[in-house]
Amino acid sequence: MRVFITDLGSSLSTELARNCQDAGLEVLGTAARGGKSEMAALKRQLQSHPSSDVDGAAKEPVALQSDPAAWRRLVQMADVVVVTAVVSDPKLAMETLKAFEKRGVTKGDEETNEDESGEN
Predict the structure, then answer these.
(1) Residue 4 in contact with residue 29, Cβ under 8 Å?
(2) Which helix (H) or strand (E) holds 65?
């Protein structure tokens, strides 16, 4: 299962990510403050955990918050989204949830098509 967490650099998100990884979940998320250097550090941190070394794991688990196309792609890969920045950035929180909602519609359409063709 994949969990997308906003602002992986915050203390709350860091703790959530660690707990999710300890539970065997793959963590994806955004780097909000430090640009590419923060993104690289967060990527190393996530990929150094043993739970990240599985088949099908995302090659780029962290996207810059300033790159909507990249983080929306990660949101659409996720099974669960945790928004930790609702108060500090409500616009981003809503955009994240809308991207996740679209993912559900697309995934639902794919499952319906599979059911109609007799595949599972």
Answers:
(1) yes
(2) none
Q: Kindly state the helix (H) or strand (E) to which residue 100 belongs, with its residue range.
A: helix 90-117
For residue 52, give both structure tokens: 């990240």
Burial class (CB in 10 A: 0-12, 13-18, 19+), 64: middle
What CATH number should be reported for the domain holding residue 73? 3.40.50.720
DSSP code, position 2:
E
Q: Is the dihedral of CA 16, 18, 21, 26 positive or negative?
A: positive
Percentage, residues of the chain above pLDDT 90: 46
pTM: 0.76
pLDDT tens readout for residues 50-89: 878 788 888 999 999 889 999 999 999 999 989 887 666 7
CA-closest candidate to residue 36, choices 62, 10, 68, 17: 62
Number of compact structural domains in the chain: 1
Q: Provide the domain limits for residue 40.
A: 2-117
